[in-house]
């Protein structure tokens, strides 16, 4: 029986984006999160931190320059740790 790789949690990806310079240039990413009333919203890093959005609401991280989702919970994409599940 093969072991299924789990998707890294959003808070681990967020920390890596902040501190690992090889992941993505600077803080050039947006966070897609689910608002309870408005649906999927996007926030910059500054907005995300000031609004205190919980990590369990994060749905994806997107590279602003390319528009590519670099981590996506629903699609199970994790380009940060190079895993596509």
Number of helical elements: 2
* Terminus-to-terminus distance: 17 Å
Give the count of structural domains. 1
Largest pleated sheet: 6 strands, antiparallel
Q: Please state how the strands of the largest beta sheet are arranged side by side.
A: 2-1-3-4-5-6
Low-confidence stretches: none
Quote the beta fraction: 25-35%
Query: Averaging pLDDT over every residue, what do you get?
Result: 86
Form type = globular
| Portion in helices | 10-25%
Helix/strand/pairing class, anyone? alpha+beta
Number of strands: 6
Order of helices and strands: HEEHEEEE
Cα-atom radius of gyration: 13 Å
3D structure, described in words:
- This protein has 85 residues and is an alpha+beta fold.
- It has one domain (10-78).
- The chain is built from 2 helices and 6 strands; from the N terminus they run αββαββββ.
- A 6-stranded antiparallel sheet has the order 2-1-3-4-5-6.
- The longest helix is centred in the first third of the chain and has 10 residues, at 10-19.
- The radius of gyration is 13 Å and the shape is globular.
- The protein starts with 9 loop residues before the first helix and ends with a strand.
- Pfam families: MJ1316.
- InterPro entries: MJ1316 (IPR040459).
- It comes from Rhizophagus irregularis (strain DAOM 181602 / DAOM 197198 / MUCL 43194).
Q: Could you give the topology of this structure?
A:
Layout: H1 10-19, E1 29-35, E2 39-43, H2 45-51, E3 58-63, E4 69-72, E5 77-78, E6 83-84
Antiparallel strand pairs: 1-2, 1-3, 3-4, 4-5, 5-6
InterPro entries: MJ1316
Pfam families: MJ1316
Domain MJ1316 RNA cyclic group end recognition: 7-73
